[in-house]
Amino acid sequence: MTDQPKDPDTGPEEPFDPLSAMFGASDPAQLGAAFQRLGQLLSYEGGPVNWDLAQEVARQVVTSGGDRSVLAKESAQVADAVRLAELWLDPVTTLPAGATQAVAWSRAEWVEATLPAWQELIAPMADRVVAAMGEAMPGQLPQMAGPLLGVFRRLGGAMFGGQVGQAVGTLAAEVVSSTDIGLPIGPAERAALLPDNVAAFGEGLGIPDDQVRLFLALREAAYHRLFRHVPWLRARLFHAIEAYASGIKVDTSRIEEALGQIDPANPEAISEALTGGMFEPEQTPDQAAALSRLETLLALAEGWVDEVTAAAAGPHLPSTVALRETVRRRRAAGGPAEATFATLVGLELRPRRLREAATLWRQLAEQRDIEGRDAVWEHPDLMPAAEDLDDPSGYLNRTEIDLAVPELTDPDQAQDQAGGTGDQSGGTGDQSEDDDGSPEGRSTPGL
User: What is the pLDDT of residues 112-157, one digit of tens each?
Assistant: First the structure.
C-alpha cells in the first residue's frame, strides 16, 4: 500500500483542533462544522483514548510535512539491501534470519503499520492520565453535573489522542526503519526501511547512498533476528513499560490549574494546552526503578544490534566506523518526537548505556565466541543487570562459573570429576538427581 501525495491546495480535511476552530470561528458554516466535529469526538466509544483522532492527526502531520508514494525502484533497493544484509549477518550471529519480507514504506505507511503497537504501549499510561483529567474538573462541576463526567473524560481522551497523534506523526519523519526506536512496533517478520528518511539520515555524511542503506538494513535485519528468536524479549520490554505505567501518579491539581487557565476566546491557548504537557505525569521512586530496568534492557538489545551490525559490515563497508558512530550519537541524543513522548508520558525510549552494553557483548564474544554470546539471550535470568554494565569483567567471570555448572550434571562427567567415587563430590550420584541438578533447575535453561 502506498500513500498518494495530497494536493497542497486542498488543505487538511479536518482541523487539527476542533475546539480552537469552534471558539475562534467567525463564519457560521465553519462554526457548524466545528460543532459537528466536536460531536463526533464526544461520541467516540473506543476506550479512554480517542485512537481514531490519534491516527487522523498523525496522518495529517505526515501530510503537512511532505510525504509521497514509494517508487518501485526504491522497493527493489530495500529488498536487495535486506537480502544482502542477511547474508552478511549469518557468519556473525547464531540467531537465524527473522524477517521473511522486506518492504519500503512511506511515512504514512509507517504510521498505519505501527499504530496498533503504539496503542498497546501507550494505553496503560493514557488510561490513568485521562482518568485523572476527569477527576480534575474545575470547581463544583463534578457535584453539579455528574452525568457530564463521561463527556468530560471523552474530551480528555480526544485531547490526549490528538497529542499522541502529533507525536507519532512527528516521529514518522525521523525513523528510518520499523525497529529504529529499539522496540518491535511493526508487523512481525517484515523488515522495512523508509527511503526518504534513510536519505535524510545520510545527508552531509559524504557516504554513498547504497552504503548508508545497507548499513541501516543490517540493523533492521539484526533487530528482527533478535525479536523473532528471543520470544521473551518483546513481552519483557512491553511489561517493563506497563510496570512503569502502573506507578503513574498524575497531579490533578496541575491539570485543574491548566484547565482553569484556558481562555475559550483564545484558540491559541487551547492548542497550547493540547501540546504543552498539561497531562505530563510525575515520576515516582517505583517508576524510576522500572525505568532503569527498561533502559537496561533497551541498551542490551541496542548494544547487541550495534555490535553484530559492526561485525557484519566491517569487512564489506569502508564507512562502517563512521556510520556506527552516527547511529550511536543519534540514538543517544534522541529527536524532537522522542522528547514529545517524554513529555507526554514521562518515558524516554533511549538506550542511554548503549556503549557499555556493546562493550559487554564484544567481550562476551571474545571470551566465549558468538555461540556463548548469543546463548545469553536464551533466558532472561541470564541477562546482565544494570550494575553489570559498570563491571563487564565481573559479569563475565561470574557467569562463566554458572554456565559451567550444568556440564557436571552429566552422570559420566560427574563420575570422572569425583574420581570414580560419590563421596569426593560430597554426595552420591543419586543425590544429584534428587536435588534437581538439571540445567533447567539452575536458572540456566537451554545451556
Answer: 999 999 888 887 777 766 666 656 555 555 555 555 556 666 677 7
Three cell numbers written together for 369: 565466541
325 shares its domain with 219 = yes
Report yes or no: 211 and 317 within 8 Å, Cβ to Cβ. Answer: yes
Length of the chain: 447
> Domain check: are 29 and 106 in the same one?
no
pTM as predicted: 0.76
Give the helix, strand, coil percentages of the chain, each rounded to 5: 70, 0, 30
CATH label of the domain that carries residue 168: 1.20.150.30
Say whether both 378 and 425 belong to one domain.
yes
pLDDT digits (tens, 9 = 90+) for 317-339: 999 999 999 999 888 776 555 66
Other CB atoms within a 10 A radius of the CB of residue 245 amount to 23
